[in-house]
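Batch job 17 of 40 flagged for manual review because the log was empty.
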Amino acid sequence: MQFAQWHRQIRRRGISGVMMMVITAAALWCVACNNEINIVAMADVNISEWSEPTTVTLKNEQPKSVGELTIVLHVNRRFDAKEVELEIVSTTADSLRYSEQITVSPTIDWPIPTAQSVDVEIPYRHMVEMRKVGQYSYTIRPLSPLQGVESVGMSYKTEKQ
C-alpha cells in the first residue's frame, strides 16, 4: 500500500493530523531502534609473510551500542597455522588504549575445493560496548610471521534489539 492511500484511510477514520504525526514518529522510532550495526574494516598485509603491525579503524555512529568483535583473516591456501598468537592494541574513541596478547586456533572452512582464498572469522570479544560515537582503532600484529594471510581486519556486529 502506498503512503498516499494509507494516509487517506487514516484521515477517513477520523485520526487527526497530530495523532498521525505521533503514530508516524513512533513507527520511525521503532525502525531506528531495531537497526543492527555491521561494521567491517580490513587492511592488506604483505602476502608473502605477515609480520608487521596492521591498523584498522571502525567508525561507530551509534552511541552506547553493544555487540560482538570478530577478528577477520583473509587467507589463501598457503595458510596452515594451527595456532596464531596475536598482539592487539585497542584505541577507543576517547583515546583509551588497551593491549593484550591472545592465542587463537582458526578453523578454515573451504566452501568449494577450487577456492583460492577464504575469510576466517575468529570470535574476539563478546558484549563489547562502544559508548561514544567516533573511531575505534585496532592494531593487530602476529607474534610470529604468518604465511598465506592476504588481509586482516575486525568486524563489529550488533543484533536487532
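Reviewer: the log was empty due to a logging misconfiguration, but the result itself is present. Residues 25-32 have pLDDT under 50 and may be disordered. Unflagging and moving on to job 18.
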